[in-house]
Amino acid sequence: MSDLAEAPASPYAGRTLVVLNPAAGQDDPGRVRRLLGGAFAVRGASFDLVETAGAGDAERYAREAVRLGYRAVVAVGGDGTVAEAITGLAGTATPLGIVAQGTGNQVACNLGIPRDVEGAVETAVHGVPRPMDLGQLADGRYFALMAGAGWDAEVMSAATRELKDRWGFGAYLYAGFRRALAPPSAHFRITADAQAFEVDAATVIVANVGQIVYDLLPVDLRIGPGVSFHDGKLDVCIFAPRTFPDVAAVLWRVARGRYVGDDRMIYLQAESIRIETDVPVVAQVDGDLTGTTPLEMRAVRGGVNVLVPAG
Predict the structure, then answer these.
(1) How do the pLDDT tens digits run along the chain, 311 residues long?
(2) For the domain with range 146-302, which CATH number is right: 3.40.1080.10, 2.30.30.370, 2.60.200.40, 3.30.479.10?
(3) CB–CB of 283/153 below 8 Å?
(4) Which of 24, 54, 97, 178 could form a disulfide with 77 if both were Cys (CB 3.0 to 4.6 A apart)?
């Protein structure tokens, strides 16, 4: 028998902290709370629920959950809420569950997490933790999906809350189509590991996951070849359409999975990336605007554990 007294177990060890963003998505927050309560109750799973009121709250709640010893944190909201929770959990053993309630919900879709509350809670309670690569900005913030500068960030800015409330993910398609009529262009300087080059492009996207999921899309759309959140690298995707016909051609090639042989599409992988422009252009991270260029980031292999469906 050890002479050292065992530390008392945390009273939160068997509990889940649910972090709800009431402003996310189009569903009524009261209805979401009732669905969550019923889904956890029927599984005999104890939980505590907190709500975010502004930027940074999900990260703060996640950090506190780690300190208190909660078994898991469940982010209920969109990709921005998920990214904040990930920043609070990165580098710890506390896993993240996701109940997708946002506009895009691309993290949940890429991980195969059910989009209905019942299925998502089942995954959060009985799923298995799997390591997921992340990107990390120079200021310490993490992202799960992608960071970008130029056209993609302009689309995020143009997809207002009013449009998203009305059309959901279609707001991004509408905003993207409007900008496609006259694609923007900037002179980018990109440093990817030891490789540095300059290019005129509409947008530069640094992707951690590759699939873009939307029920009304007729194809399985992947932003680039072999983009994976299990390879310890980030994928730099450079798109340089100059006219609307160029945009249509690039989208057609992406939809068909033809990523090579066109100088309007450039792809490379790196662990460390810096993006600069001659004139600052707007930037986004996981769908949230984050200022302007320069943008600097690195890949973090297995940066967070996410609860995914068993089997």
Answers:
(1) 334 345 456 888 899 999 999 988 777 889 999 999 999 999 999 999 999 999 899 999 999 999 999 999 999 998 889 999 999 999 999 999 999 988 778 899 889 999 999 999 999 999 999 999 999 999 988 999 999 998 887 776 655 566 556 656 555 554 566 666 677 789 999 999 988 999 999 999 999 987 776 554 555 678 888 888 999 999 999 999 888 888 888 888 888 889 888 889 999 999 999 999 999 999 988 878 888 999 999 999 999 999 999 87
(2) 2.60.200.40
(3) yes
(4) 24
Strands (E), 138-287: 142-143, 146-150, 186-192, 195-201, 203-207, 211-212, 221-222, 234-239, 265-270, 272-277, 282-285
Question: What's this model's pTM, rounded to 2 decimal places?
Answer: 0.84
How far apart, in whole angstroms, are the C-alpha atoms of residue 281 and residue 150?
6
CATH 3.40.50.10330 residue window(s) in the chain: 16-126
What are the start and end residues of each CATH 2.60.200.40 domain in the chain? 146-302
Pairing status of strand 186-192 against strand 146-150: unpaired
- Tokens 């008392």 belong to 8
- Domain 16-126: give its CATH superfamily: Probable inorganic polyphosphate/atp-NAD kinase; domain 1 (3.40.50.10330)
